[in-house]
Amino acid sequence: MTPVIDIAGLVKTFGTTRALDGLDLSVEPGEVHGFLGPNGSGKSTTIRVLLGLLRADGGRAALFGADPWRDAVALHRRLAYVPGDVNLWPNLTGGEAIDLFGALRGGLDETRRARLLDAFDLDPAKRCRTYSKGNRQKVALVAALAADVELYVLDEPTSGLDPLMEATFTDCVRELRDAGRTVLLSSHILAEVEKLCDRVSIIRAGRNVEAGTLAELRHLTRTAVSADTERPVTGLAGLPGVHDARVTGTRVAFDVETAALESALRHLLPFGVRALTSTPPTLEELFLRHYAGAR
Amino acid sequence: MTGLAGTRRLTRLALRRDRVQLPVWLAALTLLEYGSAVSIVEGYADPAERTAFVVTSANNAALLAFNGLVSGDSVGATIASQVLLIMLVGAAAMSTLTVVRHTRQNEETGRAELIGSAPVGRHAPLTAALIVAAGANLVLGVLAALALVACGLPAGGSAASGVAVAGTGIAFAALAAIAAQLTSGARAANGLAAAAIGAAFLLRGVGDATGDVRGVRVDPGWASDLSPIGWAQRIRPYDGDHWIVLLPLLALTAAAAAAAFALAARRDLGAGLLADRPGPPRAGRGLRSPLGLAWRLQRGVLLGWVVAVVVVAAGMGGVGDAVGDVVASSDAVADAIGRLGGGGSPVDAYFAAVLSLVGVAVAGYAVQALQRLRTEEGGPLEPVLATATGRPRWLAGHLLIAAAGVVLLLAVAGATTGLVYAAATGGNWHLTGTLTAAALVRAPAALVLAGFAVAAFGLLPRLVTAITWAVFAACLLLGQIGQLLNLPAAVLDASPFSHVPAAPVAPVTAAPLVVLTVVAAALTATGFAAFRRRDIG
């Protein structure tokens, strides 16, 4: 099956700044793909290239197997987009903006529009200039999510939303996934990506640092283990794959690479394990490690 | 006083932001004063001719309504009767735009919130805006007075003229400060302030037109007493220099500023006193296309221009009848109009001259309308182009409105001039068609500027505002004073308006119109091609 998004070695420069420096990104049909990176890492630039707003300087970018620059209009009928920084027309109402975007895209689902307005608790009769950042974000979200399309490109869509509305957003994306739609979700909020995404691409300074399913990524990471034993544990620090072992009396805590988990546990057993907790790595930690390495 | 903390810094910020805009305003208005003064000093050197011209002006209600109060027949007084009113309106416009830019616009964009969170007093932003506007007006007053002195006019009257200009500008700055408290949008605040200027202009127009004429002096009717612009005119430069009129202007300024500060203290940051009414929750059929959106965004500007063009064209038509007398009284005026209009009968030459002016002004509409392209690109263009809307279609929507607006405005100008002239002279209705056609002859040249704006938007998006207005200003100056300055033909020919046949006085030939249209089309095509090829943002 053709990937919905297929980017390889993408390069985009602004003057002397290399915003994208050989970026790869692949999104399969029907997947919710997390696109993670800190501010200024090139997420929005990548999306703008995919939307044909910017012209790539090198590499390959394909959307539905076509050229996003040349075939922009035809491709845009098949996608909906929420920009990271939502700018609207101050003298149009939110409802007018939603209808306008719908019409420009070629129609929108009326029942879904009504349901989304309700779910996001948005007053469509207000002028856009009076909306807060969060409400402008909601206008863009309703306009995009009410569209019946194959791909939803969402650039940090929850940055202005409160936790309640974030939950509403999460529900909406799950519905899209259940309906077999493809979603590219750019974010630096890891909990959101963890909740929603099948696969994740992590970028930094315009380059990939990691890509895969969450399970695959966790293979690269460490589980935090702490245990209470009858006798003090010895010899743990020498084991391959074990890091930061700390023994205080009968308490022991260490991080272990997933591949070495079994051997580490076997090592503990002879000391008489009374209690054991293990914490799977959060994406946060994954993230921290990647960017800590960058500095 | 803590309410004013940070005023000095905000004043410097405002000056930094206006470092191009305000000098351009000041230079343009000073040049206007100087250029008009020079042409009158040279054109009316003979006292008898001048007195005849002044008497004619004083006895024509339409001339009084649109040119302003006539008071005295010295060289200086004649200049004042021709240019003081424009200077007063110009100063008022500069002031209101400046004040709104540094108050309500900052609140609308959210900059004021950021500023307000710093140790800055509640009244500091408004105070800084008023200081900048008042300072600009004082500089303008001095420059205008110096320009008059440079033409060899008496210092006293020149100073009175400058003071009238500065005083009016400052009074309207204070009125704009009130407007900025009332609405929550900067555009609406500018609209309110413009309406105040328009009302002041019209009131004194009615007052001046209905005044008592005593030889070379007019005592305006009571309607002028209701208008700050009417008060400022009563300073009567070079004809007694009645400084006393400064008192009501200063009183108005103080009262309006106090009201603005009181209103500002009563409202929340970002909110207007006039509440935003809810709008339609659904988009109408007309809005659901790129062209519909362009129309919605552009219609306010076009409507404002239609109103302005109708008012100005009615004035031009109304004074048409008097022009024959004026021209008969002065060979110099006949020469001047002849230079602008080509030749033929005095009235036709007059219409050719004023329609040429309208043509340039309408090109200014096209340039203003097309600034919207860049505004949109800095705002919601990105999500629009992420829909199934192609770049050419979006661009074409705005261009179509601007181009149709040019044609509409020219037609309205020609038709209104003709109708009012016919009504004033009690006949000559056939001239309406002639003048409408003559006005439309200016369309290709105006469209060249529209095409230039599109080309600039495609090729040099970051510079589009600066270079389009610079080119427009160059065309305006070349047309109005290029010949007076005896510039070489090659320079004059750089303006598209130099190639427009001076209809209705000169015969209309197809060749220049075809060439101008082709140039406009080529510029437009260049802009489209470049815009398709460049990055958005």
Overall tally of domains of chain A? 2
Low-confidence stretches of chain B: none
> From N to C, what is the helix and strand string of chain A?
EEEHEHEHHHEHEHEEHEEEHEH
Would you list the SSEs of chain B in sequence order as H and E?
HHHHHHHHHHEEHHHHHHHHHHHH
Structural class of chain B: mainly alpha
Count of helical stretches of chain A: 10
Gap between N and C termini of chain A: 39 Å
Biggest sheet, spatial arrangement of strands of chain A: 5-6-7-3-8-9
**CA gyration radius of chain B, whole angstroms:** 24 Å
Low-pLDDT stretches of chain A: none
H/I helix tally of chain B: 22
* % residues in beta strands of chain B: under 5%
Radius of gyration computed on alpha carbons of chain A: 23 Å
Biggest sheet of chain B, strands in spatial order?
A: 1-2
Cα shape of chain A: elongated
Q: Count the beta strands of chain B.
A: 2
Greatest interface (CB-CB under 8 A), with counts per chain? A-B, 44 and 36 residues
The major beta sheet of chain A can be summarized as: 6 strands, mixed
Mean pLDDT of chain B: 89
Q: Count up the domains of chain B.
A: 2
What level of helicity do the residues of chain B show?
over 70%
Would you write up a description of this structure?
Chain A is an alpha/beta fold and 295 residues long. Chain A is built from ten helices and 13 strands. In chain A, helix 3 packs parallel to helix 5. The longest helix of chain A has 16 residues, at 163-178. Chain B has helices at 7-17, 21-43, 47-58, 61-67, 75-102, 104-109, 111-117, 124-150, 155-182, 186-209, 228-233, 246-266, 290-329, 331-341, 346-377, 381-385, 391-425, 430-440, 443-459, 464-481, 489-492, 510-533; strands at residues 212-214, 217-219. The two termini of chain B are 43 Å apart. Chain B is mainly α and 537 residues long. A two-stranded antiparallel ribbon of chain B has the order 1-2. The chains are: A alpha/beta (295), B mainly alpha (537). Chain B: Keywords: Membrane, Transmembrane, Transmembrane helix. Chain B: This is Exporter of polyketide antibiotics. Chain B: The chain crosses the membrane at residues 20-41, 79-100, 126-150, 162-182, 189-207, 243-264, 301-320, 349-367, 399-423, 435-460, 467-485, 505-531.
